Amino acid sequence: MKYTSLEAFLSQSKPALAKGPLAIVFAEDEIELDTTLRHHLNAGFAEVVLLSPDIFDLPAEVEEKIHRIRYDVHAEQALLSAVNRLIEAAPGIWMYYCYNAEYLFFPFCETRNIREMISFQIEERREAFLAYVVDLYADDLSEAPNAVSLERACLDKSGYYALARPDPANHNHPKERQLDFFGGLRWRFEEHIPPAKRKIDRIALFRAKPGLKLRADFTFSDEEYNTYACAWHHNITTAIVSFRTAKALRTNAGSRFDIHNFRWHNSIPFEWHSQQLMDLGLMEPGQWF
Q1: Are 240 and 104 in contact, with CB atoms under 8 Å apart?
Q2: Do residues 146 and 255 both lie within one domain?
Q3: In a shared domain, residues 178 and 230
Q4: pLDDT tens track for 44-66
Q5: Which of 132, 57, 128, 143 shows the shortest CA–CA distance to 96?
Q6: Positive or negative, the Cα torsion across 100, 18, 21, 229?
Q7: Stretch (H or E) spanning 87
Q8: What angle do CA 46, 51, 52 make, to 5 degrees?
Q9: Could you report the per-residue pLDDT of 137-155, keeping only the tens digit for each?
Q10: What is the pTM of this model?
Q11: Which among 35, 117, 156, 239 counts the fewest CB atoms within 10 Å?
Q12: Domain that holds residue 25
């Protein structure tokens, strides 16, 4: 179904927001938009919503399975505004958001679907999942000038780290069970990345509730949503493998001509499998075996 605006979707498609889980994809361009939508449809989301300009083409068999909303994704705070409006409209359902050329992975996703993982998280009395945004990049920029290649994607096998997250309301003492995570291209090419954009953690999969607000740093107004685990044991974490940073570094004039290769001694091919991400410590199953 196509909708002329987000408000039109909210008024005309209430059944789509009745149960969930809901995947929300923001299309900044057409690069791998088709594969992004297919990936999240296959993951088991009950509904997939695309916010994009009308000019982006999609295969008919994909378009008929999603809700397509005309939206200016480049407007100021476009993602924040849309996600918070959807939270307000559909309290109680689980939601996930990402951009095109980003792909959600979770433990055992090859044999289990997103609904099974959410059911387990509910049993754990958790209402959100921490995700690490793991940068992907083509191994040869002469063959893939936009840095995107699904067949020859690489990632960094090391170089990730975490720092305590200070609490301004408590004399900048560290927040309980919260960390800021760094690594990947945002760390290796940090001179091209604004400081506020260098974190790689994102609370991307969560349960909406009244009064909940997504903030500009991809954290939520409810601080418990921002924790990496509950107080008594480790929980499931997820990963969003993403070409978005690589695309941006190759698109922006300030960095494009300074970067000729993203590969370094810690680059390895991405196997498109959850086990690789768990082996690298980029997500964990917690108590879910």
Answers
A1: yes
A2: yes
A3: yes
A4: 999 999 999 999 999 999 999 99
A5: 128
A6: positive
A7: helix 78-89
A8: 140
A9: 999 999 999 999 999 999 9
A10: 0.96
A11: 35
A12: 1-100
